[in-house]
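Researcher: Please predict.
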Amino acid sequence: MYQSPARVFARLGATGPAPAPSVIIRRAVVLGASVAGLLAARVLAEHAESVLVVDRDELGAGTGHRAGVPQGTQMHVLLPAGRDQIDRWFPGFSGEAVAEGAVRLPAAARRSYLDGRRKVPGSDVDMIAASRPFLEELLRRRTLELPNVTLLPGRVTGLEFAGGAVTGVRHDSAAGPVVTAADFVVDATGRSSRLGDWLEQGGWDRPPMRRMAINLHYATATFRRTEEQPVPVAVLAACTAAAGGDIAGAAFSAIEDGRWIVMLGSYGDDRPGRDADDLIRRCREDFPPEFARVVGNELLGPVRTYRQADSRRRDFHRLRRVPAGLVAVGDAVSSFNPIYGQGMSSAALHASCLSEYLRSGPDLRQPPREFHALQRVVVDAAWGMSTSADLARPSVPGPRPRGYRISRWVADEITAASVTDPVTARRFDAVVEMRRHPNALAAPATLLRAVRVNRARQRAGD
């Protein structure tokens, strides 16, 4: 029976307790101990006798920034959708994170600006802020506490196939190259995934990939924080393409260890660099006064930059031939503009797709098309939101999809109304935070309200 993407999205985002598990897999192997990989391992732990997570980095307590997560030095905020799903799989995770130093971001203590205008409050739910290594380490620890999950350092070099299914994983070990038998494999190796190569080498089709050049640049720095409960605790100052051109905006948040983390983002040639004086100057001159107060504190360490040349999407759902027992999650499927903060929440929803698929009583000897259909709903939502906003930037070449002008006009009307209208702001934030499907903003009543709000403001000369 057909269900709309919005209904499927709502079901995947459910926060109630998961149904009782059933073991249907002997050994599952997860490639990559990323956020997506760890959450996939948690789901698989309910359905497999054993779960092996293979990662190329040496991981342990205090691992810190690692090569496999180049964006890990940048600002991360766990949106409500991701927090809810992680708390579902790891009860008490949010409370444990805060107890160990992560910072709770109450809605009342957050501020948002658009083109320099302070927005009315919209979201009414808390977020959690911490560095990426902090969140990953806690998530890894909780995952490895599961009795049937094991972490193995090693570089994956390929897959084995037989009888229309994946049967093993080739990887390096201390003793040399080995093949580990597997009944189910999850690729969570990120945007540089080689799964397409391995499929072709095994006689299968490579998933079609879409790429959209964005040429995004980040610069992030940390500053000392002396306040225990600062207000505001986090600020986002976004710039539209109409006002800021290729300047995406800036954000800051309190994080663990008594620190502020501050981020600048831009597209094209207007890139923030490693120069600390330039970052501080931009924060003081180009953004709301809260930024000047934060960067007036002691700078802790160097300014770290990150560039993402393009957004990538691998369309596994389009494959006519796909082996049984093999899926991909996280950035290995869809790696979009990280400036919207939706990466970890998308990964958490991919885990929910895996859970629903495995709980549906699938025939694991058949290709996992039901999983791909569920995952497509999540990917479409996040990809559509990010690419639509990116295409508004002068330096992003496109191509613009059919109907883009109309969809962009709708998005601009709702975004503008969210600055002054609390009702529109709540609806807008629920979509941005991945608590509701983007189709919610296309409802005629929502659009009509936004248009009326904007026209009234224009008549008032605001």
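Model: The chain has 14 helices and 19 strands.
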